[in-house]
Amino acid sequence: MNADILWDKLAGLPIPAIKWFDSIGSTNDVALEWAEKGAPDGALVIADHQSAGRGRMQRRWITPAGSALAFSLILRPKDEEMTRLTLFSGLGALSVSKALDELGLKSEIKWPNDVLIARRKAAGVLVELVWQAEQLQALVVGIGLNVAPASVPPPSEVLFPATCVETMLGKETNRWELLKSILRHLFVLRPQLSETSFMKEWEGRLAFYREWVQVEQPNQAILVGQVAGITDEGGLRLLTENQDFIVVTAGDIRLRPIEDKPLV
Length: 264
Prior knowledge:
This protein has helices at about 5-10, 25-35, 90-100, 165-170, 175-190, 195-205; strands at about 20-25, 45-55, 60-65, 70-75, 110, 115, 120-130, 135-145, 210-215, 225-230, 235-240, 245-250, 255. It has about 260 residues and is α+β, with helices and mostly antiparallel strands. It folds into two domains: about 5-205, BirA Bifunctional Protein, domain 2, CATH 3.30.930; about 210-255, SH3 type barrels (Roll), CATH 2.30.30.100. The strands form two sheets. Strands 1, 2, 3, 4, 5, 6, 7 and 8 form an eight-stranded mixed beta sheet that branches. The protein has a five-stranded antiparallel beta sheet with strand order 12-11-10-9-13. The longest helix has 15 residues, at about 90-100.
């Protein structure tokens, strides 16, 4: 694979520039630097092997060669998107989920940014911002998706059970067709960020909906409640045992189901 071949495989998508790497530390790091230097809206950074990828809370995301998708998309927010910045993680996750639909795989979005297949993590999204003189210049939407079994880390190295596309499908998958599908959905969904349909679709794929979960945040008490939906700002709505609604905003959080607590 190289950039020229990838251009052909992504033909028809509004991607103005591509940087391809056989091996790299982090696609997000390269994308952030490129964005600072003026990369155009829709520019793509992608690597076959990622040795120092990261998720939220600086968690490692390693991508062995030939086994996964690791890419970052640079987006220049339009004026109407400036009040919707908290929805871009959902945009990335929903795009992955819809691409998996096309393979016949049912998936869920574990708030705020993971995609689960059969309650196991298959993908993660990391959105980072580029600022200049207190002005937001760009967003970098980083996406990592486990495709082949070699991409799945051993249980001792993960905080949440993991899986991959090929294991769940029971057959090999063309990574580049899957990449094109994810990007196509992202470009189609992006103009819908301010529409009710976008929020409903995200909410309709929400993992653990109406189930009990606990949310851990640094230096705060653990929150317990039933997943009740997504706010217009992309926050997670929880219904407590006292029948009060609380909202959790994205940050350094850990969300886990409570399996022995009955549904109501």
